[in-house]
Amino acid sequence: MTAWARLARWRTVAVLKRPDLWSLHLGYGWLGLGWLFLGVERLAPLTGGAGWHVIGAGALGTLAASMMVRATLQREALPPDFSRPATAAIALVGLSAALRVAAASTAPDLLMPAAALAWMAAHLLVLWVLLRVPKRIRA
What we know:
The chain contains five helices and no strands. By secondary structure, the protein is mostly helical.
């Protein structure tokens, strides 16, 4: 809950038009959800280690993809504006995490491959975005 308490102070509504910032909020939101799931698992175990998947795939996946794009743009002295493919990649990471968690309780034969495909597509998009960032000439 501490993660969500911190997130509440970040004024998420003010950054909804900035994918480079709301993606960080989304990752931190996944972190709060993961801690909540881990707390619930202490009382009544959830199937498939859902809490760890929310933290690993949801929080860390979202934050890592976001920061790779942000850091690359900053390194090349470009504005931190996410392109549509970068924004789609972040959405696909979230979709992948949600599908993975859902697969633990329903239709794993369908949802696990869908989660894997969304994860791969997300990271291929991140790679594509990173390869297209123009390199500045260094003296």
